[in-house]
Amino acid sequence: MASDAREAITRGRTALGVELGSTRIKAVLVGPDHEVLASGGSSWENQLVDGRWTYSVDDVWAGVQASVRGVADEVRERHGVPLEQLGGLGVSAMMHGYLALDADDELLVPFRTWRNTSTGEAVERLSGALAFNVPHRWSVAHLYQAVLDGEEHLGRLAAITTLAGYVHRRLTGEHVLGVGDASGVFPIDPAATGGPGYDAERLATTQRLLDEALPDGLALSLADLLPRVAVAGERAGGLTAEGARLLDPSGTLQPGAPLCPPEGDAGTGMVATGSVAPRTGNVSAGTSIFAMVVLEGPLARVHRELDLVTTPAGDPVAMVHCNNGASELDAWARLFGEFAAALGAPCDDAAVFEALFRASLDGAADGGGMLAYNYLSGEPITGLEEGRPLFLRTPGRPLDLATFMRTQLYSAFATLKIGMDVLAGEGVRLDGMFAHGGMFATRGVAQRHLAAAVGTPVSVGDIASEGGAWGAAVLAAFATRRGDDQSLTDYLAERVLAGAQIDTVQPDPDDVAGFDAFLRRYVAGLPVERAAVEATRG
């Protein structure tokens, strides 16, 4: 009821989640029952600057402030009260990457995002020495590559963190990460003394590698540079006066709210979909696309296609992360939208996507001799350091819209499927996958194609409609609970997601066979993609 919402807001019985995604920054305010009371958002885009993908710090705070202002405005409009107090606060952001800070918390180099694949030498050396797959985008890979390249900023380096960790640090003064986000910084030992933490043996090995590569007179302590690790349910500092003004320059929002550990978007996506127990998984589709599969036990071998990370509670997860997701689909939709406008029949973006996605359902199940590669950037799973969006087809087969769009959607899931096949080869089994992200807004379409790709039932539902920002708010609420030792899994199942509306699609056997045929051609055609990169480089 409206009066209950007003009382929760005025008494500070709310939780605010803020997530910095790849194209949107969003804030969501929830009440005691985790229902959404208000939301706000802002768009932003990464930039390729001096050969590296980045976002500016000014854009970070402009987007965060716009999103929080949107929440505050909606609170006034819907509930008739100002947003002055918060019961809890959680920050989430794109995992991985590299933010290098000096002793005054100033950035030493522009933020290096997960999308960068310039860490090849570091990845090879670290993965071999640690007997552990260290992906290109992990923070330790960026640090070691900077050492190998002799970068000037290392002499002033005092701390490294992720985007969520950076925002949290500015809000609280705490150098900390949730274990899920920390597991994209450095390998985690779930059984470490005192709870999940950085793997001590691998930390010592990496320190030796750094010492060997650093020039005389320069020393770096990796243990001191890394944020401390915290798990879901812990409190990780409070909102300072400076932090409150960063969120709300008007001064209305008051300091003091407790914060949960900052998490990566993969972790808050797991929370938002309830996928934190073994044999559950979720797929998030945006600028990148990735699957998170909660494991029942360790994998037998090291696989370069798989990240070994954790849930926000510290349980082991296999992550299949693909650098390229829906961006090329967006580009084609814009092109078709321009065509419609040129014909004098302009359509909004939602209508264009609806028409194109629906058309794909009538396309040839095997892609009809068409191939598409959605590589705007490098794709480590298929061994490409750079990408070129590419479409080709076999002569003698028709070029029709339905099959063209099915091919584009298949392309978005193809690299994910390669990684999922590695997991299947390890004997990992899933009871089902939950899918979320803009690709699944057209009911039943991308969901059906994903089910064909992974050969597993795929669910979508209203529980993830607000995405990772809502997941961050739920983690904030979880950290403020008192008087119980309920696990995150039980908290989500019993207090957050009970009664949620979920729609599940079973894989269609014809679609599964068609996707498998498409994937064989896709893998066979990868040399064409590599040739396109080489031919257009420079």
TrEMBL record:
Report if keyword Kinase is assigned. yes
Name all Carbohydrate kinase FGGY C-terminal domain ranges. 282-479
Q: Which organism is it from?
A: Pseudokineococcus basanitobsidens
Its taxonomic placement starts with: Bacteria, Bacillati, Actinomycetota, Actinomycetes, Kineosporiales
One molecular function GO term is: kinase activity
Entries under InterPro entries matching the protein: ATPase_NBD, FGGY_C, FGGY_Carb_Kinase, FGGY_N
Give the source's domain of life in one word.
Answer: Bacteria
Question: Which PANTHER family does the record cross-reference, listed alphabetically?
Answer: SUGAR KINASE, XYLULOSE KINASE
Q: Which UniProt keywords apply?
A: Carbohydrate metabolism, Kinase, Transferase, Xylose metabolism
Protein's UniProt keywords contain Transferase: yes
Q: What is this protein called?
A: FGGY-family carbohydrate kinase
Domain (Carbohydrate kinase FGGY N-terminal): residue spans on this chain: 15-183
What family does the database annotate?
Belongs to the FGGY kinase family.
Name the Pfam families on file. FGGY_C, FGGY_N
